[in-house]
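Subject: for your reference before the review

Hello V.,

The reviewers asked for a structural picture of the protein, and I figured it would be easier to keep everything in one thread rather than splitting it across files. Below is the amino acid sequence we used in the manuscript, unchanged from the supplementary table.
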Amino acid sequence: MIKKLCMALIAVIISMPITALAAENSCVFFAPQSMNEANEIIVPIYTKNLPQDNDGLCGCEFQFAYNTEQFTLKTDESGRPLLGTNETMLVQDTDIIEASVNGDIVSVSYVDFSGENNVVLRDGPLFYFTLIPKNPDALWNSDDYYPLRFLAGSVNLITLDKENFSLSGMSAEGIDTYVGGYNVFPNFEPLETQDKIEFKKDISAVYINGEERETDAPPCLKDELMIPIRPLAEAVGAEIYWDGDTKTVSLFYPYTSTYFDMSSGNVYVNAKLHTDLPKAELVNDRTYVTLSTVQAIFGDALNIENNGDSVSLDFNKDNQEEE
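And here is what came back from the structure prediction:
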């Protein structure tokens, strides 16, 4: 009964407006450890940039997908994901956590109403789950890594206000990572690249450091110059996928995952809905995005120079500033 009440309250909290409550770049992320002697991989969930205008984090919810061809999620006798904690973890009572698995999707949520033992006051590891490789010998001898991906719109944090005895919900980012036999703590550093990428209006080509490569879609001009997402992804080495069932374009780059829901027009960066970003457009069966969206995806690592009929994307920004 208590868990059902918790879930109902989470639903109410998360449905509240999340404007002033949201702190910039608050996020959760996975930090898989290397496979241990028992051929298990401990995967803690961490917080980063928790908001400080409250009395602590007292709950959260998120969903993520993992590779079921390579791993089994460790569960208890009832099939519930087995969550663990130790003296380094910030949530000590995992019994308050509701966790379930459906295929390759894991759902996690909890609220601590005590306001004491499990309230988190600083960034760090909350608790962990365990992945069991289906072929540990192959993983020990492989450099292959497999994604852990947060579902779009699924990450929410719940904070406590003791004075007013109230809870506040806010959406947050979920930063994807990869898991293999040998894992290191995420450093959140973007890929080092010297590339300068240029698109020209009405020309079906992308120019990488001046070298022309043909594409099947030229940029188009609407309210601003829009560029085709697939040639951009291929130019920067990002993964891109189209899901015809959900009509979603997914773009995966180190520490940045972006989802374009073509049905609703929603844009998610690191699982968080960005209502400030224009929706992607379909033009001649090709997906186009605005320059403001491209800037949001790549952040400070990218400098964009818009010349009206052409646009330059300079990934060598830091080196330029040092000169």
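For the response letter, the relevant points are probably these. Residues 1-23, 319-323 have pLDDT under 50 and may be disordered. DSSP finds five helices and 26 strands in the chain.

Happy to draft the paragraph if you're swamped.

O.
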